[in-house]
Specification:
Elements lengths: L1 H17 L10 E5 L3 E3 L4 E7 L4 E4 L6 E16 L2 E14 L3 E5 L3 E4 L2 E4 L3 E6 L11 H8 E7 L10 E9 L4 E9 L6 E6 L6 E6 L2 E15 L3 E5 L3 E13 L5 E11 L3 E5 L16 E9 L3 E3 L4 E11 L15 E3 L3 E9 L2 E14 L3 E5 L3 E6 L4 E6 L3 E7 L49 H29 L1 H16 L1 H5 L4 H20 L8 H10 L4 H16 L7 H21 L3
Parallel strand pairs: 2-10, 22-30
Antiparallel strand pairs: 1-3, 3-6, 4-8, 5-6, 7-10, 8-9, 11-12, 12-16, 13-18, 14-16, 15-16, 17-20, 18-19, 21-23, 23-26, 24-26, 25-26, 27-30, 28-29
Helix pairs in contact: 4-9, 6-8, 6-9, 7-8, 8-9
Length: about 600
């Protein structure tokens, strides 16, 4: 419904703006030509039109042309809805005298005592054509006067540097647009992308190839390249309904229009993505590209033992805020530290992402003393200055002024405790005296023959015979359950391939590397192919050809995308666990569905 409303709005806006409504009192004097490029053996028609009657019309000199006919004068005077419409036109038929580029200069006329002039018009004369003065069709006119353009802000960005793409529909004053709808929206493969909402279509004046046009911004996108090298941006395609003027007029002298549909495309655009320089790359660089500020902030620096404080590691600025890892804290062991809480306040505009990302650590000291929070460094690449920058925080001293004293504290005179070990605290009756007066009793001699153990060993095997029969029947039932065996075999296979990833669940990078390797190894084993050179589209095609349903294929490709994106985005342990379970389920589903 919203899309229908948007189309209605754009129709009203375009019709209202592309039609040149004239004030009744405004004087309009202009020159129009039948074509701006013609062959040496063709003819050119030029009309000088005014909307008020004028005197002393003076035509230009027509250098480079010979006047074959003219001036022919025509006057149109009509009343529409109670309003008078007047038009007076002087027409000429010209023939070029040579090849080249020529300018038809200004014509002048006197209207109500004032002198008005037309704008100069540039004409290009080419070699003679096969079919001179062949009339153009509505499609030809639409092709010449309608253009969809993708404006790319930077065609040579660095890896992870923001690139904006603005799609503009240019429409010449010679035609009007009554409707359009998208046919194919581009997919930004190898990019992290974010659409910027265009709340309303606004018609603006501009130029296209040096000629006056009006245009509408249809779509805005910000992309961050995730690979280096030459990357392609797919074109946006539209089906546009165009109203093209004809040479016919109605009974009131108004020009008649014909309607046609045109498919316009922004064209595929190539972006050459540069790798980040290896020279000067800091050891702690995690992929941040942009301009940033960095600091470490504590909620307080003086507190009692067992009270808590918050230490926030904060990065703010403009850049790929969603695509890098924050530096971690290194704290003394006597401080109890909880898993950080990640927070982000990021907005995306046409210039890229900007905002703040942070990790908040809750810290609880156990003992009295002074504890340092060491300096933390954050490194990023500035694409404007083309160099790496490192920001280091100040060392912060936490003063725990009340609480138990750590018995393992060093006798050093230094006032700062830096590497405490948590002592084991004795609780309860952990140490008791050994009793010296033992209450010992003699052990009675037992006879094995005819004892309980004797009869158990004698008749036990006989009693187990029914159990063996039951187990055997159960085993046969399991073996005859083909579908159940297939499910169990698929689950076992999934666990086999993902065993390495499961061991690395606590380590993000190692986990996703192991999971990506497991997914590719599974395909190699199952499809008997090499996956190193296969794209995701080819993998989807192979799985679909072996009767794997679309949902399972999409889940498999989604996991591969997660593995690639995990290098640049913060990931929680809950997300990692969910991805592991999803991978196990996907491999199991493929193994049940696939037909070799």
């Amino acid at each position: 419904m919203n899309m229908v409303k948007n189309y209605i709005i754009v129709i009203l806006v375009l019709v209202a703006n592309f039609s040149f409504a004239q004030d009744d009192n405004a004087v309009n004097f202009e020159a129009k030509v039948s074509k701006e490029t013609l062959g040496l053996n063709e003819r050119l028609r030029i009309d000088f039109s005014m909307n008020k009657d004028g005197d002393n019309f003076t035509p230009p000199g027509f250098e480079g042309f010979r006047v074959l006919m003219g001036p022919n004068q025509s006057i149109s005077n009509s009343w529409i809805n109670g309003k008078r419409t007047f038009s007076k036109t002087y027409s000429y038929i010209l023939s070029p005298t040579a090849r080249g580029k020529f300018t038809i200069k200004q014509a002048t006329v006197e209207i109500d005592g004032d002198i008005y002039k037309t704008l100069p018009i540039n004409i290009e004369v080419t070699a003679a054509v096969d079919k001179p003065n062949e009339e153009k069709t509505a499609d030809d006119i639409a092709d010449d006067n309608l253009h969809l353009v993708a404006e790319v802000s930077n065609q040579n960005p660095y890896l992870n540097q923001a690139v904006s793409i603005i799609y503009k529909l240019y429409v010449s004053p010679n035609i009007s647009v009554s409707d359009f709808k998208p046919l194919d929206n581009p997919k930004y493969n190898d990019f992290w992308s974010q659409d910027i909402e265009v709340k309303r279509w606004k018609v603006e004046n501009g130029t296209y190839n040096g000629k006056p046009y009006r245009y509408v911004i249809l779509k805005k996108v910000v992309v961050y390249p995730q690979k280096t090298g030459k990357l392609s941006i797919e074109p946006l395609s539209l089906d546009v309904t165009v109203d093209v003027p004809t040479n016919r007029r109605d009974i009131f002298g108004g020009r008649l229009y014909t309607q046609t549909h045109k498919t316009v495309s922004a064209g595929s655009r190539a972006i050459n993505v540069k790798a980040l320089p290896e020279k000067g790359k800091p050891a702690d660089f995690t992929g941040a590209v942009g301009q940033f500020d960095f600091n470490v902030i504590t909620s307080k620096t003086d507190l009692k033992a067992s009270e808590s404080l918050t230490v926030k590691v904060n990065v703010d600025g403009k850049g790929n805020l969603n695509l890098f890892e924050l530096p971690s804290l290194s704290l003394p062991s006597s401080l109890e530290v909880y898993e950080p809480e990640f927070d982000k306040k990021v907005s995306t505009s046409i210039s890229g992402m900007q905002g703040t990302v942070s990790n908040s650590y809750t810290v609880v000291p156990q003992y009295k003393g002074k504890y340092p929070i060491p300096s933390v460094s954050f490194s990023y690449f500035d694409p404007v200055q083309r160099k790496y920058k490192t920001i280091s925080s100040q060392e912060i001293l936490i003063n725990v002024f009340e609480g138990p004293v750590n018995s393992g504290e060093s006798t050093s005179s230094s006032p700062v405790a830096t590497n405490y070990k948590q002592p084991v605290m004795a609780t309860g009756n952990q140490f008791q005296f050994i009793k010296l007066n033992a209450n010992l009793k003699p052990v009675k001699e037992k006879i094995f023959f005819k004892s309980t153990l004797f009869y158990s060993l004698l008749f036990g095997p006989l009693l187990l015979i029914p159990l063996f029969i039951i187990v055997g029947k159960k085993k046969k039932a399991i073996q005859s359950d083909v579908e159940g065996n297939r499910i169990r075999k698929a689950n076992k296979l999934a666990k086999k391939y993902l065993s390495e990833a499961k061991r690395a669940i606590g380590k993000k990078e190692a986990f996703y590397e192991a999971m990506e390797r497991a997914l590719h190894n599974y395909l190699k084993a199952k499809l008997k192919i090499e996956t190193s050179d296969l794209s995701k589209d080819k993998i989807s095609e192979l799985l679909t050809s072996r009767n794997v349903n679309d949902e399972t294929v999409n889940n498999f490709i989604s996991l591969l995308n997660s593995c690639e994106l995990a290098r640049y985005t913060p990931t929680t342990e809950v997300t990692i666990q969910q991805d592991y379970e999803k991978a196990a389920n996907v491999i199991s589903q493929i193994d049940k569905q696939i037909k070799i």
